[in-house]
Amino acid sequence: MGINPAISAGAIISGAYFGDKLSPLSDTTNLAAAVSGTDLFSHIRYMLYTTVPTYIVTLIAFTILSFNIQTPTSIDISETLHAIDQTFTISGWLFLVPVMVIFCILMKVKPIMALLFGTLLGAIFALIFQPNILAKVAGGNTLDFITAYKGIMNAITSDTAIISPMQSLNSLFEAGGMKSMLNTVWLILCAMFFGGVMESIGALKKVTKSLLVFAKNTFGLVASTVASCIAVNITASEQYLSIVIPGKMFAKEYRKRGLAPENLSRTLEDGGTLSSVLIPWTTCGAYNAGGLGVETLAYLPYAFFNIISPIMTLIFVAFSIKIKRLFNSDQPGELKAQ
Predict the structure, then answer these.
(1) CA distance 196 to 250
(2) What is the pLDDT of residue 64?
(3) What element of type H or E holds 303?
């Protein structure tokens, strides 16, 4: 279509991180809630106050940008659609799988159970609609009990590659299963261990005290948290560390100042999760640059959602908009959120 790939990449990243930020199934969303000590769905609801306005501003920015882009009046994608149709059985019934997962989210089903349900439902639909694909994934020619079981387990757990008539589509039909997530799981565990060790030896307390010199008020505290998240992303090159370390550093101070943990969890997402993709040498920046084929610094100016999010959080704090606080309950020594 002649559109600058950097603009396309910025739009893709903005939309992807909006979904990642608000999904109860997202790793970073669960991690930010856990580190700050708040309920997952309370964390998501509280993020809506800053995330929705940021997304609206992002949509306006891309709308204005699109007025200055010239594209062809007609584009032929029939060859691509034909190749997909030759490879898979396409049916509207397949939408039931994501719809049911979304239903589980709305019913506040635990993330692990919702993911498990979606996986099992996807396996059933694969048996019904994609029997030939399952047989090929299992290394067989026809679908029987053995190849069906092997195909489903391979698709869930290990690397799979489906060959289509159009070579350019083949990379789209590759998947890594649970195996591809092991590095992420190990990284989360290492981040938690690292944060725990730093807390135990008193390093976090020392660093926190140094940073709190600049945090004279609520705005200063939130700004210090955002700056810490970005600094950890730049120095440690990892999104999970940018959530865990600042989360452990500032959790006690937020509570001490009467701020509900949702304030911390939201700030960790805006400062840590969303800034990681804007730094070339982080795992997120490198992955997105490789996957999209666009250098990080090239798409950075167009990742409007990621750039605006931490700024929006600071604006809300500066004007004391929707700042959730703790107050004393009837029980001595107990604090509740209002």
Answers:
(1) 14
(2) 94
(3) none
